[in-house]
Write a structure and sequence with these properties.
This protein is α/β, with parallel strands linked by helices. Helices cover 39% and strands 13% of the residues. Bound molecules: pyridoxal-5'-phosphate.
Protein backbone atom coordinates (compact mmCIF):
# COMPACT_ATOMS: atom_id res chain seq x y z
CA UNK A 1 0.00 0.00 0.00
CA UNK A 2 1.17 3.52 -0.75
CA UNK A 3 0.87 6.06 2.06
CA UNK A 4 2.62 9.35 1.32
CA UNK A 5 3.62 11.63 4.18
CA UNK A 6 1.24 14.24 2.81
CA UNK A 7 -1.23 14.17 -0.08
CA UNK A 8 -2.25 17.68 -1.02
CA UNK A 9 -3.98 16.47 -4.17
CA UNK A 10 -6.55 14.56 -2.09
CA UNK A 11 -7.54 17.79 -0.36
CA UNK A 12 -7.50 19.84 -3.54
CA UNK A 13 -9.87 17.39 -5.21
CA UNK A 14 -12.53 18.31 -2.63
CA UNK A 15 -12.07 22.08 -3.17
CA UNK A 16 -11.17 22.41 -6.81
CA UNK A 17 -14.19 24.37 -8.05
CA UNK A 18 -14.22 26.75 -5.10
CA UNK A 19 -10.49 27.38 -5.35
CA UNK A 20 -10.57 27.99 -9.08
CA UNK A 21 -13.45 30.44 -8.68
CA UNK A 22 -11.59 32.35 -5.96
CA UNK A 23 -8.38 32.55 -7.97
CA UNK A 24 -10.26 33.44 -11.12
CA UNK A 25 -12.00 36.35 -9.36
CA UNK A 26 -8.59 37.81 -8.43
CA UNK A 27 -7.37 37.32 -11.99
CA UNK A 28 -10.43 39.14 -13.32
CA UNK A 29 -9.86 42.03 -10.91
CA UNK A 30 -6.10 42.20 -11.70
CA UNK A 31 -5.81 43.56 -8.15
CA UNK A 32 -2.83 41.44 -7.08
CA UNK A 33 -1.31 43.53 -4.30
CA UNK A 34 -3.35 44.48 -1.21
CA UNK A 35 -6.61 43.51 -2.87
CA UNK A 36 -9.78 43.25 -0.78
CA UNK A 37 -9.22 39.53 -0.05
CA UNK A 38 -6.16 40.42 2.07
CA UNK A 39 -8.20 42.57 4.45
CA UNK A 40 -10.97 40.01 4.51
CA UNK A 41 -8.61 37.17 5.40
CA UNK A 42 -6.96 39.31 8.09
CA UNK A 43 -10.35 39.88 9.69
CA UNK A 44 -11.19 36.18 9.54
CA UNK A 45 -7.85 35.05 11.00
CA UNK A 46 -7.97 37.69 13.76
CA UNK A 47 -11.41 36.42 14.72
CA UNK A 48 -10.41 32.77 14.43
CA UNK A 49 -7.38 33.39 16.65
CA UNK A 50 -9.19 35.57 19.20
CA UNK A 51 -6.86 38.48 18.39
CA UNK A 52 -7.48 42.20 17.80
CA UNK A 53 -5.31 42.55 14.71
CA UNK A 54 -3.93 40.34 11.98
CA UNK A 55 -1.43 41.39 9.33
CA UNK A 56 -1.00 39.24 6.24
CA UNK A 57 2.61 38.72 5.21
CA UNK A 58 4.61 36.92 2.56
CA UNK A 59 5.55 33.80 4.59
CA UNK A 60 5.84 32.42 8.09
CA UNK A 61 9.49 33.37 7.99
CA UNK A 62 8.63 36.96 7.10
CA UNK A 63 6.03 36.99 9.87
CA UNK A 64 8.79 36.24 12.38
CA UNK A 65 11.23 38.70 10.81
CA UNK A 66 8.65 41.49 10.52
CA UNK A 67 7.54 40.98 14.14
CA UNK A 68 11.12 41.12 15.41
CA UNK A 69 11.90 44.23 13.33
CA UNK A 70 8.71 45.98 14.40
CA UNK A 71 9.53 45.31 18.04
CA UNK A 72 12.88 47.01 17.47
CA UNK A 73 15.04 43.93 18.03
CA UNK A 74 18.50 44.19 16.49
CA UNK A 75 22.25 44.17 17.05
CA UNK A 76 23.27 43.83 20.69
CA UNK A 77 20.00 42.17 21.67
CA UNK A 78 19.40 38.57 22.68
CA UNK A 79 16.32 36.49 21.92
CA UNK A 80 15.69 33.24 23.78
CA UNK A 81 14.35 30.35 21.73
CA UNK A 82 14.45 26.62 21.20
CA UNK A 83 17.20 24.76 19.36
CA UNK A 84 14.69 22.15 18.17
CA UNK A 85 12.70 23.88 15.44
CA UNK A 86 12.61 24.71 11.77
CA UNK A 87 15.51 26.96 10.82
CA UNK A 88 13.40 30.08 10.28
CA UNK A 89 12.95 30.67 14.02
CA UNK A 90 16.64 31.07 14.77
CA UNK A 91 17.44 32.36 11.29
CA UNK A 92 15.15 35.39 11.69
CA UNK A 93 16.63 36.26 15.08
CA UNK A 94 20.11 36.21 13.52
CA UNK A 95 18.96 38.22 10.48
CA UNK A 96 17.95 41.15 12.70
CA UNK A 97 21.49 41.18 14.07
CA UNK A 98 20.34 39.88 17.46
CA UNK A 99 21.82 36.77 19.07
CA UNK A 100 19.75 33.61 19.31
CA UNK A 101 20.09 32.17 22.82
CA UNK A 102 18.97 28.57 22.99
CA UNK A 103 17.26 26.79 25.85
CA UNK A 104 16.75 23.02 25.81
CA UNK A 105 13.39 21.33 25.23
CA UNK A 106 10.98 19.34 27.32
CA UNK A 107 11.49 15.80 25.98
CA UNK A 108 7.80 14.98 26.45
CA UNK A 109 6.47 17.70 24.12
CA UNK A 110 9.56 18.74 22.09
CA UNK A 111 8.76 22.35 23.07
CA UNK A 112 11.03 24.78 24.94
CA UNK A 113 11.45 23.81 28.60
CA UNK A 114 10.10 26.82 30.52
CA UNK A 115 11.96 25.85 33.69
CA UNK A 116 15.27 26.61 31.93
CA UNK A 117 14.37 30.00 30.47
CA UNK A 118 15.05 32.33 33.38
CA UNK A 119 18.67 31.15 33.70
CA UNK A 120 19.22 32.30 30.12
CA UNK A 121 17.94 35.85 30.70
CA UNK A 122 20.63 38.56 30.66
CA UNK A 123 20.43 42.37 30.59
CA UNK A 124 20.56 42.06 26.77
CA UNK A 125 17.52 39.80 26.50
CA UNK A 126 14.66 41.48 24.63
CA UNK A 127 12.32 38.67 23.77
CA UNK A 128 11.38 35.03 24.09
CA UNK A 129 10.36 33.17 20.95
CA UNK A 130 8.68 29.89 21.89
CA UNK A 131 7.74 27.55 19.03
CA UNK A 132 4.49 25.58 19.16
CA UNK A 133 6.05 22.54 17.56
CA UNK A 134 4.10 19.89 15.67
CA UNK A 135 0.80 21.62 16.46
CA UNK A 136 0.68 22.03 20.25
CA UNK A 137 1.43 25.11 22.29
CA UNK A 138 4.54 25.46 24.38
CA UNK A 139 3.78 25.75 28.10
CA UNK A 140 2.83 29.45 28.04
CA UNK A 141 2.00 30.31 31.69
CA UNK A 142 5.58 29.99 32.97
CA UNK A 143 6.92 31.57 29.78
CA UNK A 144 4.67 34.62 30.23
CA UNK A 145 5.62 34.80 33.92
CA UNK A 146 9.34 35.09 33.09
CA UNK A 147 8.59 37.52 30.28
CA UNK A 148 6.47 39.76 32.49
CA UNK A 149 9.00 39.68 35.31
CA UNK A 150 11.85 40.75 33.00
CA UNK A 151 9.72 42.92 30.65
CA UNK A 152 10.42 40.82 27.59
CA UNK A 153 8.33 40.56 24.43
CA UNK A 154 7.01 37.11 23.55
CA UNK A 155 6.75 36.22 19.88
CA UNK A 156 4.92 32.94 19.42
CA UNK A 157 6.21 30.96 16.45
CA UNK A 158 2.82 29.40 15.75
CA UNK A 159 3.71 28.42 12.17
CA UNK A 160 2.63 24.84 12.91
CA UNK A 161 -0.18 25.64 15.33
CA UNK A 162 -2.94 27.82 13.87
CA UNK A 163 -6.13 27.01 15.77
CA UNK A 164 -4.41 25.03 18.53
CA UNK A 165 -5.42 26.01 22.05
CA UNK A 166 -4.06 26.00 25.60
CA UNK A 167 -6.56 26.27 28.44
CA UNK A 168 -8.97 27.63 25.85
CA UNK A 169 -6.60 30.29 24.52
CA UNK A 170 -5.70 30.26 20.86
CA UNK A 171 -2.14 29.95 19.56
CA UNK A 172 -0.81 33.43 18.82
CA UNK A 173 -3.18 35.17 21.23
CA UNK A 174 -1.10 34.82 24.40
CA UNK A 175 2.20 36.55 23.67
CA UNK A 176 2.99 40.00 22.29
CA UNK A 177 2.52 38.67 18.77
CA UNK A 178 1.92 35.32 17.08
CA UNK A 179 3.20 34.21 13.69
CA UNK A 180 1.50 31.79 11.30
CA UNK A 181 2.74 30.16 8.12
CA UNK A 182 0.59 29.27 5.14
CA UNK A 183 3.29 27.11 3.55
CA UNK A 184 1.38 24.46 1.61
CA UNK A 185 2.23 21.65 4.06
CA UNK A 186 0.92 23.53 7.10
CA UNK A 187 -2.62 22.81 8.34
CA UNK A 188 -3.83 25.95 6.56
CA UNK A 189 -1.75 25.88 3.40
CA UNK A 190 -1.80 28.42 0.60
CA UNK A 191 -1.09 28.22 -3.12
CA UNK A 192 2.51 29.06 -2.40
CA UNK A 193 4.15 31.11 0.34
CA UNK A 194 2.18 33.18 2.81
CA UNK A 195 1.94 34.02 6.48
CA UNK A 196 0.24 36.19 9.08
CA UNK A 197 1.06 38.03 12.29
CA UNK A 198 -1.61 38.34 14.97
CA UNK A 199 -1.65 40.46 18.11
CA UNK A 200 -3.92 41.65 20.91
CA UNK A 201 -2.26 45.07 20.76
CA UNK A 202 -4.08 47.11 18.10
CA UNK A 203 -1.34 49.76 18.08
CA UNK A 204 1.30 47.11 17.45
CA UNK A 205 -0.94 45.72 14.71
CA UNK A 206 -0.88 49.07 12.93
CA UNK A 207 2.88 49.30 13.25
CA UNK A 208 3.30 45.76 11.91
CA UNK A 209 1.23 46.72 8.86
CA UNK A 210 3.55 49.69 8.23
CA UNK A 211 6.69 47.53 8.57
CA UNK A 212 5.19 45.02 6.16
CA UNK A 213 5.23 47.73 3.48
CA UNK A 214 8.75 49.21 3.76
CA UNK A 215 7.86 51.19 6.88
CA UNK A 216 6.03 53.57 4.59
CA UNK A 217 3.32 55.82 6.05
CA UNK A 218 2.10 57.96 4.41
CA UNK A 219 3.21 56.58 1.08
CA UNK A 220 6.86 57.46 0.27
CA UNK A 221 7.51 58.73 3.81
CA UNK A 222 9.58 56.29 5.88
CA UNK A 223 9.80 56.65 9.59
CA UNK A 224 11.25 53.12 9.83
CA UNK A 225 13.08 50.69 7.57
CA UNK A 226 10.63 47.87 6.96
CA UNK A 227 10.47 45.46 4.05
CA UNK A 228 8.26 44.06 1.35
CA UNK A 229 6.52 41.48 3.49
CA UNK A 230 3.13 41.68 1.76
CA UNK A 231 0.71 38.80 1.27
CA UNK A 232 -0.48 38.36 -2.34
CA UNK A 233 -4.19 38.85 -2.97
CA UNK A 234 -4.34 35.50 -4.76
CA UNK A 235 -3.00 33.74 -1.66
CA UNK A 236 -5.53 35.48 0.54
CA UNK A 237 -8.38 34.49 -1.79
CA UNK A 238 -7.35 30.83 -1.72
CA UNK A 239 -6.87 30.87 2.04
CA UNK A 240 -10.35 32.34 2.63
CA UNK A 241 -11.77 29.26 0.92
CA UNK A 242 -9.62 26.87 2.94
CA UNK A 243 -10.06 28.55 6.34
CA UNK A 244 -13.70 27.39 6.42
CA UNK A 245 -12.50 23.79 6.51
CA UNK A 246 -9.59 24.19 8.91
CA UNK A 247 -11.46 23.12 12.06
CA UNK A 248 -12.73 19.93 10.46
CA UNK A 249 -9.28 19.12 9.02
CA UNK A 250 -7.59 19.65 12.37
CA UNK A 251 -10.24 17.51 14.08
CA UNK A 252 -9.56 14.75 11.55
CA UNK A 253 -5.83 14.99 12.25
CA UNK A 254 -6.57 14.63 15.98
CA UNK A 255 -8.72 11.59 15.28
CA UNK A 256 -5.94 10.08 13.15
CA UNK A 257 -3.44 10.77 15.92
CA UNK A 258 -5.68 9.09 18.50
CA UNK A 259 -6.01 6.08 16.22
CA UNK A 260 -2.22 5.72 15.81
CA UNK A 261 -1.70 6.12 19.54
CA UNK A 262 -4.29 3.44 20.21
CA UNK A 263 -2.74 1.07 17.66
CA UNK A 264 0.80 1.65 18.90
CA UNK A 265 -0.06 1.38 22.60
CA UNK A 266 1.78 -1.48 24.24
CA UNK A 267 4.85 -1.09 22.02
CA UNK A 268 7.31 -0.19 24.74
CA UNK A 269 9.96 0.91 22.24
CA UNK A 270 7.68 3.34 20.43
CA UNK A 271 7.02 6.61 22.24
CA UNK A 272 3.85 8.21 20.90
CA UNK A 273 3.31 11.99 21.09
CA UNK A 274 2.20 13.42 24.40
CA UNK A 275 -0.21 16.33 24.49
CA UNK A 276 0.20 18.57 27.53
CA UNK A 277 -2.80 18.77 29.88
CA UNK A 278 -4.89 21.78 28.82
CA UNK A 279 -3.61 21.65 25.23
CA UNK A 280 -5.60 20.86 22.11
CA UNK A 281 -3.12 20.02 19.35
CA UNK A 282 -3.77 20.46 15.65
CA UNK A 283 -1.19 17.72 14.87
CA UNK A 284 0.64 19.44 12.07
CA UNK A 285 2.91 16.44 12.59
CA UNK A 286 2.57 13.14 14.44
CA UNK A 287 6.10 12.39 15.63
CA UNK A 288 6.97 9.16 17.34
CA UNK A 289 10.32 8.36 18.97
CA UNK A 290 12.07 5.08 18.28
CA UNK A 291 15.60 3.88 19.03
CA UNK A 292 16.46 2.64 15.50
CA UNK A 293 14.91 5.58 13.72
CA UNK A 294 16.91 5.59 10.49
CA UNK A 295 16.41 1.86 10.02
CA UNK A 296 12.68 2.19 10.66
CA UNK A 297 12.44 5.04 8.17
CA UNK A 298 14.20 2.95 5.49
CA UNK A 299 11.95 -0.04 6.25
CA UNK A 300 8.79 2.06 5.99
CA UNK A 301 9.98 3.53 2.70
CA UNK A 302 10.31 -0.01 1.30
CA UNK A 303 6.71 -0.59 2.38
CA UNK A 304 5.51 2.49 0.48
CA UNK A 305 5.17 4.68 3.55
CA UNK A 306 6.43 8.27 3.51
CA UNK A 307 7.96 9.68 6.70
CA UNK A 308 10.19 12.62 7.58
CA UNK A 309 12.66 13.60 10.26
CA UNK A 310 11.73 16.91 11.88
CA UNK A 311 14.49 17.92 12.61
CA UNK A 312 17.75 16.06 12.07
CA UNK A 313 20.12 18.87 13.11
CA UNK A 314 19.33 21.19 16.01
CA UNK A 315 20.03 24.90 15.67
CA UNK A 316 23.05 24.95 17.99
CA UNK A 317 24.74 22.39 15.73
CA UNK A 318 24.20 24.34 12.49
CA UNK A 319 27.31 25.49 10.70
CA UNK A 320 25.98 29.03 10.28
CA UNK A 321 25.72 29.39 14.06
CA UNK A 322 29.25 28.14 14.75
CA UNK A 323 30.21 31.55 16.09
CA UNK A 324 27.78 31.07 18.99
CA UNK A 325 30.34 28.59 20.33
CA UNK A 326 28.07 25.66 21.06
CA UNK A 327 29.15 22.05 21.05
CA UNK A 328 27.52 18.64 21.02
CA UNK A 329 26.05 17.97 24.45
CA UNK A 330 24.93 21.55 25.14
CA UNK A 331 21.24 20.70 24.68
CA UNK A 332 20.92 16.98 25.37
CA UNK A 333 17.14 16.76 25.12
CA UNK A 334 17.16 18.37 21.66
CA UNK A 335 20.00 16.11 20.54
CA UNK A 336 18.18 13.00 21.74
CA UNK A 337 15.05 14.12 19.91
CA UNK A 338 16.89 14.72 16.64
CA UNK A 339 18.17 11.13 16.75
CA UNK A 340 14.83 9.51 17.59
CA UNK A 341 11.94 11.44 16.01
CA UNK A 342 10.03 10.26 12.99
CA UNK A 343 6.92 11.90 11.56
CA UNK A 344 4.25 9.51 10.27
CA UNK A 345 1.56 10.46 7.73
CA UNK A 346 -1.21 12.31 9.61
CA UNK A 347 -3.01 14.37 6.95
CA UNK A 348 -6.81 14.58 7.25
CA UNK A 349 -7.68 12.52 4.17
CA UNK A 350 -5.91 9.35 5.41
CA UNK A 351 -8.17 6.32 5.52
CA UNK A 352 -8.41 4.03 8.52
CA UNK A 353 -6.99 1.28 6.35
CA UNK A 354 -3.90 3.38 5.71
CA UNK A 355 -3.44 4.21 9.40
CA UNK A 356 -3.78 0.55 10.36
CA UNK A 357 -1.25 -0.36 7.66
CA UNK A 358 1.31 2.24 8.82
CA UNK A 359 0.94 1.33 12.51
CA UNK A 360 1.18 -2.37 11.59
CA UNK A 361 4.43 -1.83 9.70
CA UNK A 362 5.91 0.18 12.60
CA UNK A 363 5.01 -2.67 14.96
CA UNK A 364 6.39 -5.27 12.55
CA UNK A 365 9.76 -3.48 12.44
CA UNK A 366 9.95 -2.87 16.16
CA UNK A 367 9.04 -6.51 16.86
CA UNK A 368 11.97 -7.73 14.80
CA UNK A 369 14.57 -5.19 15.91
C1 LIG B 1 7.07 26.49 8.49
C2 LIG B 1 7.72 27.13 9.65
C3 LIG B 1 8.25 28.43 9.60
C4 LIG B 1 8.41 29.21 8.35
O1 LIG B 1 7.29 29.34 7.58
P1 LIG B 1 7.42 29.62 6.01
O2 LIG B 1 6.02 30.01 5.65
O3 LIG B 1 7.87 28.37 5.37
O4 LIG B 1 8.38 30.74 5.81
C5 LIG B 1 8.74 28.99 10.77
N1 LIG B 1 8.75 28.30 11.92
C6 LIG B 1 8.28 27.04 11.99
C7 LIG B 1 8.31 26.34 13.31
C8 LIG B 1 7.78 26.41 10.86
O5 LIG B 1 7.33 25.15 10.95
Amino acid sequence: MNVPLLDLKAQYATLKNEMLAAVSAVMDSQYFINGPAVKELEGLVAKYSDCKSAVGVSSGTDALLCALMTLGIGPGDEVISTPFTFFATAGCIARTGAKPVFVDIDPATFNINPALIEKAVTPKTKAIMPVHLFGQLADMDPIMAVANKHKLAVIEDAAQAIGATQKGKKAGSIGTAGCFSFFPSKNLGGLGDGGMIVTQDAELGEKLAVFRNHGSKPKYYHKWVGGNFRLDTIQAAGLIVKLKYLEQWSAKRRANAARYTELLAGESRVVTPKVLAGNVSIFNQYCIRVPKRNELQAFLKEQGIGTEVYYPVSMHEQECFKSLGHRKGDFPAAEKAEAEVLALPIYPELTDEQIVYVAGKVKEFVGKN
